[in-house]
Amino acid sequence: MANLNETVSxxxxxxxxxxxxxxxxxxxxxxxxxxxxxxxxxxKGTTTDPVKKAMELLPLGPVVVIxxxxxxxxxxxxxxxxxxxxxxxAQTDIAVLVVDGAAGLSGExxxxxxxxxxxxxxxxxxxxxxxxxxxRTPADGHTLFVSAKTGEGVNELxxxxxxxxxxxxxxxRIVADLLxxxxxxxxxxxxxxxxxxxxxxxxxxxxxxxILDFHGSFIxxxxxxxxETLRMLAVKPKIVITDSQAFGKVAADTPADVxxxxxxxxxxxxxxxxxxxxxxxxxxxxxxxxxxxxxxxxCTHHRQCSDIGTVKLPGWIEKFSGAxxxxxxxxxxxxxxxxxxxKLVVHCGGCMLNEKEMQHRIRTAVSAGxxxxxxxxxxxxxxxxxxxxxxxxxxxxxxxxA
Length: 402
Prior knowledge:
Largest sheet: 6 strands, mixed
Radius of gyration: 24 Å
Number of domains: 3
CATH architecture of the largest domain: 3-Layer(aba) Sandwich
CATH class of the largest domain: Alpha Beta
Distance between the termini: 51 Å
Structural class: alpha/beta
CATH topology of the largest domain: Rossmann fold
Order of helices and strands: EHEEHEHEEHEHEHEHEHHEHEEHEHHH
Strand order of the largest sheet: 2-3-1-4-5-6
Shape: globular
Helix content: 25-40%
């Protein structure tokens, strides 16, 4: 059983290892991690799918290490593997390009370096198999000579990764910057057939932990008990945070002088781009019959009869817009790079995605000229309470009046 106190994968630094087949990616991954994480073979193309491992890696701390298929894989299936490897870039915080030192940089390697620079992604070029090199070209700030076989340069590689990870550290908060020590928050958590049995979902857990870390207090209740819960309190709460599905009733029961928002809106700010997602909400009213709406979730779960993504959201959208759009659904790691023909993207809060991947998805939509909004913002807009739910963020709230 997993340790419930472990850092969740979405909050770990993601390190992606890329390179040509037989450059020694898997061997170097094993050398860096000190584990037989990846299968090693002399046969080209042994790694056929991205392999992920959450672990503690000194001096970095909690990380996700990702071994990827070769950039030069061949055939129709090989092309799909290469595409999978490139998709990993969307969630990579630090990239390690592993190069066969004797062969030097390939065209595919150079293309990847160009892509890394374009995305402003920290990277290291690990010239592997240094033990076989008679001569070495001078290394630059990105290049390091290593040998997965002898261990040469492996500790230096780990130190460089640690330095990158430290500089990439985020000081962003979920909710703590909205609270002073001693402030009280009320967390509204509906328990219905869609709620996971016997546990709370990740955004709720993370919000609770951050409030405790910053010496605030919270109480929880279901939306049906909110009014009575507020009546029993001896002190007025600073903020009410709700599950988006209960936004309508919670807004009606929350006093006007108490801040109100949702977990989804908090996470839009924490790991996404809240202003862009708020601007995207305006597209909901402009939908017309037949418009294609992409509804995307970052996790995979069993769909139920009242599923928010496939049932509730389409119902709310049609009632709000008066239109009958065409819906496309994606989940987990799948998100289309080509959004041609899509009129609107409605995305989940992204709690299971790391910040890099959530922001990549937003950038993909923006680059394609497609509005994007997340569940909580969309639901607040469709219930007429978006301005109310953005009161904790006055600068962003003002976008609605622009």
